[in-house]
Amino acid sequence: MPSDSKAPVSYDFSNAPGHLIRRAHQVSVALFMQEAAGHDVTQVQFAILNALIDRPGLDQVTLAQAVALDAATSGSVIGRLEAKGWIRRERDASDRRRRLLWVTEAGQSVVAALMVPIARSQERLMAPLDGRERTELTRLLRKVFTRTVDNAA
Fold first, then answer.
1. pLDDT tens-place string over residues 106-136
2. What whole-number distance in Å separates Cα of residue 91 and Cα of residue 67?
3. How many Cβ atoms from other residues are within 10 Å of residue 31's Cβ?
4. What is the pLDDT along the chain (153 residues), one digit of tens a residue?
5. Which of 11, 32, 64 is nearest to 24 (CA)?
6. pTM > 0.70: yes or no
7. Distance CA 42, CA 127 (A)
8. Alpha carbon 118 to chain centroid distance?
């Protein structure tokens, strides 16, 4: 059978920034899960807990924006954290539609226990890079994120 000379050439995903970012995310999640094993927490749950420790009493919408999650995903994660007893939700007295969130003592204990494992996972993630490269990678990722978010709005 003759070959079709118009067959598409495959795309070089091994050098595509989006693919490399996805792979880096996979590695980041794997390292987090290894280091946080035994704490029954995900990166997203940790991000939510950490954001609420920084800003107690946030409403769900503002919290979702702070950790870059859509409302549906943040709502389900918040529900799981509440079921674990790590956060508490209360209706806003001035706007009964809003739900305000706080980290409980149990949640604070989990976050405290995770500080060393989280730092270790981040160190392992960045281990191949020297100090200057780490700073540059972080700067570039922030730049891509900021420009992408600004252009999407």
1. 999 999 999 999 999 999 999 999 999 999 9
2. 21
3. 20
4. 556 668 778 888 888 999 999 999 999 999 999 999 999 999 999 999 999 999 999 999 999 999 989 988 999 999 999 999 999 999 988 888 888 999 999 999 999 999 999 999 999 999 999 999 999 999 999 998 887 655 555
5. 32
6. yes
7. 22
8. 12
Distance separating alpha carbons of residues 118 and 46, to the nearest angstrom? 9
The position carrying tokens 């987090």 is 32
Show the 3-state SS of the chain: CCCCCCCCCCCCHHHCHHHHHHHHHHHHHHHHHHHCCCCCCCHHHHHHHHHHHHCCCEEHHHHHHHCCCCHHHHHHHHHHHHHCCCEEEEEECCEEEEEEEEECHHHHHHHHHHHHHHHHHHHHHHCCCCHHHHHHHHHHHHHHHHHHHHHHC
**Residues 117 and 36: beta-carbon distance below 8 Å:** yes
Q: Which residue has the tokens 């409302």?
A: 71
Tokens standing for residue 60:
């769900």
- Whole-angstrom CA distances from 120 to 28, 34, 124, 141 are 11, 10, 6, 20
Q: Are the C-beta atoms of 23 and 8 separated by less than 8 Å? A: no
